């Protein structure tokens, strides 16, 4: 039965339940909490009524949420994954980073950012022993009016060629992440690894949901950036590798924006590197990423 | 910022995220799962956009859901409590038990129903040692056309005078619950306990939510019924005690319906009982509850 088939008496009964919950929220002392809970109540109840959710489906939902909570520990945040695969994370990012002139677009932080990554000098290598193909990354941090942002702080992080971040290995090794400071012209440059596709953790309830919807758990290959400068809105974003993996597998968390896709230019073994680093018989890639920061509060 | 303040470009970006999630669900093999997930996605994203949910609020939500999952174990279902206090349980009951002529209204099952309660003869006492004021309960099970339903099966359960169900005590004691069979005229009668108000478990995340909204954790005093008969829709309901507790404390789970409120008539000590049971100097109550079952599939 669809909502439209319900009799007026039945509709009135259903509305009465929603109204009773909304009335109960009137006592909420914090006005913002009241607004959030009222909206949540309206949308949750509308979801139930629109779908005519059965009691069996309700029970399945309770069991799914319970299993999701019980999968969480210090190293695994299954509710963040759930938020990610339903696009809730990306929608929250979009709402909180409104379009602002030519400012670089934001995307999801993801679960693998770690505070206190090592300081890397400009031109240094963030890989720190993580396996993968070398990738030269360079660009400039600018304002929306085109002025350089000298001394902008950048944090970058990524998975290795096995598709794993350092924190997914046992032990305390830090690799494939680092903090850099742009120079007086806002320019930055460093060695990293050519990003590869990898699956989000999919051995839990969220993996079961992806399987039930015949969706891929793969993330499009990307390199994470977090860029900060005084007076500018903090930018959390990725750059994505243009090409096959992006086209075929898509992105399980809906993080891709066209404006963030970059050509990672393939360099044959023996091609001279920008800083004369000797790579022997290894191929490498290079990518340029110019970053535009919105003003703070924009 | 409210949704209405967003620029057209910003609105387009936000809609694009929702559309990407909806597109990803097109591969879902089970058409019903697809319908449910599409509606869930639309309502979740609309909630985020309507409230302009901040990233800090999103994190608080993730932490709340995680704590709720981690509170669950074999004896405690915190997600059912969350569903209850947001009226989600009662809305689901309402949707799945559409109004049908004079059929008795349904309400929530609650977390304290247990399979395999003891068989109690008509006129017997379900208390089985649970402390509380005796209450004589009687009535008749009928069809929507007024015909008696001979042999209807009833399950009844309630808390004791301490506000606790048997399963909330340590040990395996069964008390204040039982199964009965109506007689050839559909009539039933039994001794129970006068229902008292009690709080839902409120030492977890759901209790914190109630506190943040200045809501009471109390349930209105009630006696649970589950009534089954061949060819009739199974009825899960309560009767509520008319009076002060109902008026002042309300009901934390929105289970009360006017049609389910009954006068529990107070009887002074020494008042003769319907079955000549000897209660000495104890007061008791009596209540009549006539039950009307909808046809199956109505």
Overall description:
- 2 copies of one chain form a homodimer.
- Chain A has 298 residues and is an alpha/beta fold.
- Chain A is 29% helix and 19% strand.
- In chain A, the strands form 3 sheets. In chain A, strands 1, 4, 10, 11 and 12 form a 5-stranded mixed beta sheet that branches.
- In chain A, helix 1 runs antiparallel to helix 2.
- The mean pLDDT of chain A is 94.
- Chain A has 2 domains: 51 residues; 215 residues, Protocatechuate 3,4-Dioxygenase, subunit A, CATH 2.60.130.10.
- Chains A and B meet through helix 1, helix 2, helix 3, helix 4 and helix 5 of A and helix 1, helix 2, helix 3, helix 4 and helix 5 of B.
Oligomer: homodimer
What characteristic shape of chain A results from the CA principal axes? elongated
Most strands sheet of chain A: 5 strands, mixed
CATH class of the largest domain in chain A: Mainly Beta
Structural class of chain A: alpha/beta
The CATH superfamily name of the largest domain in chain A is Aromatic compound dioxygenase
Domain count of chain A: the total is: 2
End-to-end Cα distance of chain A, whole Å, is 46 Å
* CATH overall fold name of the largest domain in chain A: Protocatechuate 3,4-Dioxygenase, subunit A
Element string of chain A (H = helix, E = strand): HHHHHEEEEEHEEEHEEEE
Overall pLDDT score of chain A: 94
* Proportion of strand residues of chain A: 15-25%
Residues in helix, % of chain A: 25-40%
Please give the CATH architecture of the largest domain in chain A.
Answer: Sandwich
The number of helical segments of chain A is 7
* Total strand segments of chain A: 12
Major interchain interface with per-chain residue totals: A-B, 71 and 71 residues
The rounded Rg of chain A comes to 23 Å
């Amino acid at each position: 039965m669809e909502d439209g088939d319900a009799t007026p008496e039945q509709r009135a009964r259903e509305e009465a339940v929603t109204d009773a919950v909304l009335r109960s929220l009137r006592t909420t002392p914090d006005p913002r909490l009241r607004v959030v809970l009222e909206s949540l109540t309206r949308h949750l109840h509308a979801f139930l009524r629109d779908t005519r959710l059965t009691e069996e489906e309700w029970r399945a939902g309770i069991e799914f949420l319970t299993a999701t909570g019980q999968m969480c520990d210090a190293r695994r945040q299954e509710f963040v994954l759930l938020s990610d695969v339903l696009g809730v994370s990306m929608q929250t990012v979009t709402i909180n980073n409104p379009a602002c002139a030519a400012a670089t677009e934001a995307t999801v932080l993801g679960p693998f950012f770690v505070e206190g990554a090592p300081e890397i000098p400009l031109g240094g290598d963030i890989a720190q022993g993580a396996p993968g193909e070398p990738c030269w990354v360079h660009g400039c941090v600018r304002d929306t009016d085109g002025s350089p942002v000298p001394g902008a702080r950048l944090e970058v992080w990524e998975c290795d060629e096995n598709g794993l971040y350092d924190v997914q290995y046992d032990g305390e090794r830090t690799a494939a992440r680092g903090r850099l400071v742009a120079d007086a012209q806002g320019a930055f440059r460093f060695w990293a690894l050519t990003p590869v596709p990898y699956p989000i953790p999919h051995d839990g309830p969220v993996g079961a949901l992806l399987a039930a919807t015949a969706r891929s758990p793969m993330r499009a290959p990307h390199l994470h950036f977090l860029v900060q400068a005084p007076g500018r809105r903090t930018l959390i974003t990725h750059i994505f590798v243009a090409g096959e993996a992006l086209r075929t597998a898509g992105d399980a968390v809906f993080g891709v924006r066209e404006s963030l896709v970059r050509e990672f230019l393939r360099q044959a073994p023996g091609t001279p590197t920008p800083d004369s680093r000797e790579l022997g018989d290894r191929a490498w890639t290079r990518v340029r990423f110019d970053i535009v920061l919105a003003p703070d509060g924009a």
